[in-house]
Amino acid sequence: MHTSSNPLEAETQEKLNQLIKCWWVGDRTYMALQAACQGDNAMPGFADYFHLLGIRCRVQAELTTKYVTLRGGKLKMDTYGPITDVDLMYYIGKKMMRHQTRSIYWAARHITGLENSNSAYLYDRLTMRPLVARMTRDIYAHRSSKWAAMTMQMMSPAERAFMENDETTERQCQ
């Protein structure tokens, strides 16, 4: 077994474990939002959008877990409670959660757009479907990166086939 020559300090290990818990909570939240949107026949685009965001949280949790274990740390997954450490809140807020903040901002904008539209189906069809298609194309285009490679592994065979067919159609058009 590979042992690290420079193991993690206890405080660093604890903060990374809390960060991993935050990523898993984000994944579960996005899965719940996806399930809520899948229950409504008019919003499959929102369901796909939340599915991709959940995959991103899951990938980040797995990459951080891999980092902790490769450095000789131990992963502790107990129940998640409120964060009370100010330094940890600053570190997560400043360094690690920029993408999450941006995702929440865009989700709020989409919810506002949905509320202002006349039809949930049309908003989903005209806004969310093209957004999800663009996101999946971007993931597939950068499939050599770690994040994209792990995302591709977590996608269903139907989603991967859709992305591959979309790429071949795009090549034929050029």
Number of helices: 7
Q: What is the first-to-last residue Cα distance?
A: 50 Å
Overall strand count: 0
User: Would you state the CATH class?
Assistant: Mainly Alpha
Shape call = globular
Summarize the helix and strand pattern as letters: HHHHHHH
Number of domains: 1
The overall pLDDT, averaged over residues, is 76
Major β-sheet profile: none
- The CATH topology assignment is Ferritin
Q: Classify the beta-strand content into a percent band.
A: under 5%
What is the gyration radius calculated from CA atoms? 19 Å
Spans of at least 5 consecutive residues with low confidence = none
The CATH architecture category equals: Up-down Bundle
**Percent in helix:** over 70%
Q: From the helix content, strand content and strand pairing, which structural class follows?
A: mainly alpha
Short structural description:
The chain is mostly helical. The chain is built from 7 helices and no strands.
Question: How would you characterize this protein structure?
Answer:
- The chain has 174 residues and is mostly helical.
- It is built from 7 helices and no strands.
- Helix 5 packs across helix 7.
- The relative contact order is 0.13.
